Amino acid sequence: MKKTYIILFTCLLAMILCGCSVNATQSATEAAAQGEAFYAGSDGYMLSEIVRLADYDTDESIGYGVVILMESDTAPISFLKSSGAAVSSVQSLIGLTLDAENGDFYNYTDASFSLNEDSSNYKGKAVFKFSLPKSASFPQTGTFTYSGDPAEEISLSFTGMDLPELSETAIETSTAPATATVSETSTSTADESLSDNGVSVTSFEELKNAVKDTSTTEITIAADIEITEDYTLERSDDLDIHIDEGVSLTISGAFELVSCTLTNDGLITINGSFVYGISDFINNSVLNVQSGGTVSSGQSNAVNNGFVTIEQGGTLLIERGTVLDNAGELTNEGNISIQDGGQLNDQGGTVVNNGTIDLNSYYNGDITLITGTGTLNDNRE
Questions:
Q1: With 80 as the cut, is the pLDDT of residue 91 above it?
Q2: Which numeric CATH code is attached to 25-183?
Q3: Which of 69, 150, 154, 163 could bridge across to 144 with cysteines, CB 3.0–4.6 Å?
Q4: Would you call 369 helix, strand, or coil by DSSP?
Q5: Nearest C-alpha neighbor of 202 from the set 251, 249, 155
Q6: Among 9, 151, 127, which Cα is nearest to 68's?
């Protein structure tokens, strides 16, 4: 069974970004140029370079990325919660617009955050991704926005910066344990990243048909789907399923996943039952277990790089030899049971317990770092 670590925290999910203008005061009287430090929200930033992003090319536009280095190694994002404890969306605190020749401006399409590995004082890196008209020159100026308190705007100058040749493409890697990818209005389609044996589905019926076709080895869920019936999805460890950014999978029936890999970059909501066995489950975004919902597993590997919320009346069972590596945020308002050889590993994430945790088998980490007002029953021998 392969174990995939995808360090993306994609949110998912109808994410509201800060690419638009905000009511703010100008924090600098002169535009910051390449290599010049500037500050927003008490954090330091620096305009680094312009890169090519061929994946954002269309017949009428060219893909570019503007790289901003960050002193912090943590993505500048905030988490919006619904009326309960569940995280409903992720919002970037920083944004970037480019000034067009006609007096208008270009908003970025996507932004990604990762570690900066050039050994400088800047630990993080943000890449703002644009699809600019082929008929237009690359803008000379732009505005960096910070939507924290207080909000700020910093003028940037791209004058004199090297533009990559149109044949060049940027290769981006995301290796930070706390990384985020956020989207505004993505112009790329899920099909663009699929292999020859991959398909994109937009309904439950399409999903079932794709699973039946054993030649299909990759499925992207590209539109909101709700599973309202009892459904078992079983393959032979030869199928990768990906929930796209901004897409929700709602499980209101009983969904059983066997011998597959499921990667969530969107939103999974459990109102019914979700069971995965002999499978890999990677959550890079948001998983909400609602009241009455249950997630259980057996002989599987799970990784949480995002947000898992067990609401009051919800249940998470880590059992039957399943290992859950928590590098994100695990919030429990209901019940978590670790039993029958199940194991929860602290991989730099957080556990907030306002419900009940029954620890009957294995926990790899400092149990005193579990916070919250709930009950922790440590029944380990």
A1: no
A2: 2.60.40
A3: 154
A4: helix
A5: 249
A6: 127
Antiparallel, parallel or unpaired: β 87-92 and 77-81: antiparallel
Handedness of CA 170, 175, 179, 182 (dihedral sign): positive
Q: Which residue has the higher pLDDT, 370 or 184?
A: 370
Please list, in sequence order, all residues whose beta carbon lies within 8 angstroms of the beta carbon of residue 176, skipping any fewer than 6 positions away.
7, 73, 75, 113, 114, 115, 124
> Residue 293 burial (CB < 10 Å; 0-12/13-18/19+)?
buried
Q: Is 26 exposed, middle or buried (0-12, 13-18, 19+ CB in 10 A)?
A: exposed
The residue whose two tokens read 């590098």 is 327
How far, in Å, CA of 108 to CA of 94, rounded? 11
Q: What is the pLDDT of residues 102-136, one digit of tens each?
A: 889 999 887 777 778 777 889 888 899 999 999 88
CA distance 20 to 205: 37
Closest CA to 142 of 130, 124, 133: 130
Token duo for residue 146: 């910070």
Q: Specify the pTM.
A: 0.57
- Distances from the Cα of 198 to the Cαs of 84, 190, 217, 241, in angstroms? 37, 10, 6, 10
Q: Which residue has the tokens 């599973």?
A: 227
Residue 303 corresponds to which amino acid? V
Better-scored residue on pLDDT, 203 or 74: 203
Alpha-carbon distance values, 27 to 66, 98, 309 (Å)? 20, 18, 38
Tell me the H-state helices in the chain: 204-212
Task: State the pLDDT confidence band at 90, using cuts at 50, 70 and 90.
Answer: low
Q: Enter the DSSP assignment of 165.
A: P
Q: How many CB atoms lie within 10 A of CB 79?
A: 13
Can you tell me the distance from the alpha carbon of 310 to that of 321, in angstroms, rounded to the nearest whole number?
21
Say if CB 188 and CB 56 are below 8 A apart.
yes
Distance CA 91, CA 99 (A): 23
Give the separation between CA 221 and CA 191, rounded to whole angstroms: 10
Please choose, from the candidates 213, 259, 219, the residue with its C-alpha nearest in 3D space to the C-alpha of residue 241: 219
